[in-house]
Amino acid sequence: MRLTTSRKWIGRKWRPRLATVVVAILVLVMALPLVGLFFFRLYENQLIRQTEAELIAQGAAIAAIYARDVRDAGIPPEKLGAPMPQMDESASRSLDPGGSIDRGYQPIEPRLDLASDSVLPTRAAATPAVADPVFAAIGARLSGILDATQKTTLAGFRLLDPRGVVIAGRDEVGQSLAAVEEVQEALGGRYASELRLRIPDQPTPPLYSVSRGTRVRVFVALPVAVDGRVAGVVYLSRTPNNIIKHLYGERGKVTLAAIAILGGTLLIGLVFLRTISRPIHALIERTQRIAAGDRDAIRPLDHHGTYEMAELSAAFLDMAEKLQARSDSIQTFATHVSHELKSPLTAIQGAAELLRDSGAAMDDAERRRFSNNIVADAGRLNLLVRRLLDLARAENLAPSGETTSVGAGLALLPADNRVTVRVEAGGDLGLRISAENAAIVLANLIDNSARHGATLVSITATSASGTATLLVGDDGAGISPSNRARIFEPFFTTRRESGGTGMGLGIVLALLKAHDGTIRLVDSDRGTRFEIILPAA
């Protein structure tokens, strides 16, 4: 009833099953690569950097050709633009491939970041302007190269003179882009790149809309240095490759990666099912069988899975085994108690009925005999109840931490004329047990010896490795081989007629167990000898 009530109480609140939690975790694990792609935009950002690097490489090639033509045209320095910044002189040499001094390589690294850089509005329209005829002639010669390159690379090319006027680049030739932020930076001799919103010339496919990279365009402004001054700007732009399109192009590798992730996830789920879920369900099934009274269920599981599950299973089954043994012990104990109480109660009832029914026909001697029987049986009942109480206290005793010695325990015993008690050795040896409990143990052993005809009880105590050993022997009749295995059973006695209850040694055993001690019957040439082991003080 209590178990059913507990299950009803537990069932009131919804709780996910272990399998549900595991599936949710595995789905989350499988989704992590997609989260990295779309939430953190790692792959898109890599495509942005790749596009910027390609534009830098193409712009460097165009800049080298343009710088050569400017030198060949013999354009005087006053027609060139601003001087290249001194702090970036080594960098300017990489933008001045025709320079006579080799000052080493200083590559321009891509620096755009889709996650952190702000996306600027679409580029402002060019404004009307007039180009210098000398630069316009150079731009006209290079227009064919730019157009042919654009057909292959799909990048937009604009070649600007030192004032920012377009001298090559299709429909914007003769117009100025000097007001554009990145162009201003390049006219000052510094490399610049920006992300801008693109102007779509055709509808974006719905599937591509998940990619932020489809909505931006990469702009790169590369200054061209001639003799330490800005001779012009190569202005390039291109829409980066779309992540969906790129992944589709790599669909074979993506499919293999997805299969590997799915296979790994299923393997994790299988391992979890084998090592955790399956043993838990097996343990639940065992619990239900044990609760139903199936003794065969108290055995190890077929599969434990993990060390912790094996430990849990062993601890649970050990607890179930002890509870079952405890239940059997209580049942046996109850049977013995009912039997022990039934005999004197029956005798008392019979004697009382005879006294009631016989009346005046019973003489005084018979009446006295039946009355004495009632008193004797009542006394036996009283003794049984007291011994049961002593046994219950002993079995539920908590050690007090007190210490005593054999001599101190014997000092609490009343004088017994039936036997002589002699301490052979170790009378002052410290024992981890209170003097009162030590006296109870010794009193029961001495009483048993006296009841079996002993006249002398000898006690020897020794100590070694933190434990004390007591040998308690007598010169009585001893114990027959057939009874040696049963002497610690409750209610077992061979002296029932003389008032024995068979509980003395049971009380001794319970007291010693409560103090981490043991007692056993050992061989002896004469009489009976017990070996008691207790922690030494």
Strand ordering within the main sheet? 3-2-7-6-5
How many strands in all? 14
* Average pLDDT number: 80
Q: How many helical stretches?
A: 13
Proportion in β-strands: 5-15%
Which geometry do the CA atoms define?
rod-shaped
How many domains? The number is 3
Indicate the percent of residues in helices.
40-55%
> What is the element string, with H for helices and E for strands?
HHHHEHEEEHEEEHHHHEHEEHEEHEE
CATH architecture of the largest domain: 2-Layer Sandwich
User: What is the rounded distance between the termini?
Assistant: 47 Å
| Regions with little confidence, pLDDT below 50 for 5+ residues | 87-95, 97-102, 205-213
**In CATH terms, what is the fold-level topology of the largest domain?**
Beta-Lactamase
CATH class of the largest domain: Alpha Beta
**Overall radius of gyration:** 52 Å
Taking the sheet with the most strands, its summary is: 5 strands, antiparallel
Q: How does the helix and strand content classify structurally?
A: alpha+beta
**CATH homologous superfamily title of the largest domain:** PAS domain
